[in-house]
Design a protein that fits this description.
Layout (H helix, E strand, L loop, with lengths): L35 H6 L2 H17 L19 E3 L20 H22 L12 H26 L21 H18 L12 H16 L6 H17 L6 H5 L9 E5 L37 E3 L1 H4 L7 H6 E2 L1 E3 L4 E5 L2 E5 L4 E4 L7 H5 L4 E2 L18 E2 L22 E5 H14 L3 H14 L13 H12 L5 H7 L3 H8 L1 H6 L13 H6 L12
Helix pairs in contact: 2-3, 2-4, 3-4, 4-5, 5-6, 6-7, 6-12, 7-12, 12-13, 12-14
């Protein structure tokens, strides 16, 4: 019997297809030993195979372990650092002793190849060697196109982080361990080929919310081309094509009226959203759950009057990030809060007298401007001044304005190594980023005026009345806008690497990196996991300067 899933000895790809029932949610069903004969006898298995690609891609966005959440996406950047005092060292954030044994780089690598493995199962059915009854050619082509979208997305994540990686484009049916690395140029070429196939095959407006649309493909392809445009093997044509794709997405997914409306939990499926991973209230189909509501939270519940409603993921925005917002920028208030209100009554001291603070009244204030000690002593709530976010005040070792952008208030408290149970849609692509992609591409083509026009659209939506001009726009300005608009939504590390600004901005704005002064040019690539090198007998080679 020819089984659809196989294993690569050495663990390069994890075989087995997760069970899936429909286009958006999954049944509690294990399809890890589906056979080709099964597909031939049951056409619904094909739909389950396609759904399994969605499931694996969704789970790699949220399921890690307690110290790996989003570690290779935002930690060690200019706007996010580790939530600890400014002392000691860490590998991912501080780049100290960052090597091939790091757990995060291994998990990230494996997660992406899980998606690729599932996508290859579907893609191989395109050959027609397996006859699937009652499945039209159009349905087959659409399923393959969806699978190739996710395969391209995973390879994009891999090439950005590791450089050239093995291109595995078919089901693995032998125990071969020779998986040498393709060049970066070859990987980008394959990504673009897959996305072109996907663009031709997926629906413009899918009937089922959460399925890949042509605009989702356009959005990803615009970002891939924008990134390739900076490479030695890229060209201005990449920037030009990225603009065209992004502007189509912008036209089809116009900006919501306000940033607060965009991120409101009651307005998750709005016109600006291009693609989201879906979770929902069903504990089986939800999987691990959307964990974004746990991002950028400190232990506020250690203060009087507050209870444990959400646990943080051990990362925090840098003071530089909080300083990026002007007073009129409405994105600040819609993204994080400086005011935390009591969940229950408590007693506090005010100038030597005991007072009762009622539930619903202010419990913690993190003012934008520094308060005097006299002002602090005159109020019953805790006041945490700017400049003291890394100072242990006897209650918490670090503290900072907590994020409300991803709040999911009905979700129970869980520890980071437990199922997060988050039910919100996880927005992965939206029109707002398309504006920023196009603006950056215009800047690279020397058209700062058009870049300014696009940026002004975003800034106007945020309530900013002062317009920027062509002379104001450079790559740092665009990165600042990406920080204000997109923190927690996209890979900040990749943004900094793409634009050639990672070393400069991280050294300047990440306090832990500045302390340890370990960030070097070779850190623009992650180390290849040592297990992959060992298990392939060295056919996968290490990136320079890593051990």
């Amino acid at each position: 019997m020819k089984y659809i899933n196989r294993k690569i000895i050495g663990g390069l790809l994890l075989a087995g297809v997760l069970g899936a029932s429909c286009d958006t949610y999954l049944e509690e069903e294990n399809n890890s030993s589906l056979s080709i004969e099964t597909v031939e006898s049951d056409p619904q298995i094909f739909n389950q195979l396609v759904a399994s690609v969605y499931e694996r891609a969704r789970e790699t966005s949220t399921y890690y372990t307690s110290d790996l959440y989003y570690a290779l996406e935002d930690l060690g950047t200019d706007i996010v650092t580790r939530a600890t005092a400014i002392n000691g060292t860490s590998d991912v954030n501080d780049y100290v002793n960052f090597n091939s044994l790091n757990w995060a780089v291994g998990v990230f690598w494996t997660n992406q190849y899980k998606v690729i493995s599932a996508a290859n199962v579907v893609a191989d059915l395109e050959s027609g060697e397996v006859a699937i009854p009652d499945l039209s050619a159009a349905e087959l082509a659409k399923g393959v196109a969806e699978a190739k979208f996710f395969r391209a997305w995973s390879y994009f994540k891999l090439v950005v982080n590791y450089g050239g990686v093995p291109l595995v484009l078919n089901q693995v049916t032998t125990s071969d361990t020779d998986y040498s690395r393709a060049s970066e140029e070859e990987v980008y070429s394959q990504i673009i080929t897959d996305l072109q196939t996907s663009l031709a095959g997926v629906d413009e407006n899918p009937a089922d919310y959460g399925r890949v649309s042509k605009d989702a493909v356009r959005h990803l392809l615009s970002k891939v081309l924008l990134t390739r445009g900076y490479k030695s093997f890229g060209s201005d044509a990449d920037f030009t094509e990225a603009i065209g794709l992004a502007e189509t997405v912008m036209a089809n997914h116009p900006l919501e009226g306000s940033f607060a409306d965009l991120v409101a939990i009651g307005n998750q499926r709005n016109q600006e959203v291009v693609f989201s991973y879906l979770f929902g209230g069903n504990s089986v189909s939800r999987g691990w759950g959307n964990s974004r509501h746990m991002m950028y939270q400190f232990r506020f519940y250690d203060y009087p009057g507050l209870i444990r409603t959400v646990q943080g993921l051990r990362n925090m925005p840098t003071p530089f990030f909080y300083g990026l917002f002007s007073d009129e920028d409405q994105r600040a208030e819609a993204t994080f809060t400086r005011e935390i209100y009591a969940h229950e009554d408590y007693e506090a001291e005010v100038n030597g007298s005991t007072v009762t603070v009622a539930a619903g009244e202010l419990a913690i204030l993190l003012p934008k401007e520094t308060w005097t000690q006299e002002e602090i002593d005159a109020v019953p709530y805790a006041v945490i001044n700017p400049g003291t976010y890394f100072t242990n005040n006897g209650t918490t070792p670090v503290h900072f304005p907590i994020f409300t952008k991803f709040e999911d208030p009905g979700v129970p408290f869980t520890q980071p190594d437990q199922s997060s149970q988050g039910e919100r849609d996880m927005v992965m692509m939206r029109g707002g980023e398309a504006y920023l992609i196009a603006a950056e591409a215009y800047l690279q083509l020397g058209n700062a005026g058009q870049a300014a026009t696009l940026l002004n659209s975003l800034r106007s939506r945020a309530g900013i009345t002062e317009e920027v001009t062509a002379g104001d726009v450079d790559i740092d300005f665009i990165l600042d806008e990406r920080a204000r608009e997109l923190i927690g939504e996209v890979n900040r590390w990749a943004d900094l690497k793409r634009t050639g600004k990672l070393l400069e901005r991280v050294r300047e704005h990440n306090p832990h990196v500045a302390l340890n002064n370990a960030l070097q040019e070779y850190h623009l690539l992650r180390p290849i996991p040592q297990a992959e090198i060992d298990n392939t007998g060295g056919s996968i080679t290490q990136n320079p300067n890593y051990k």
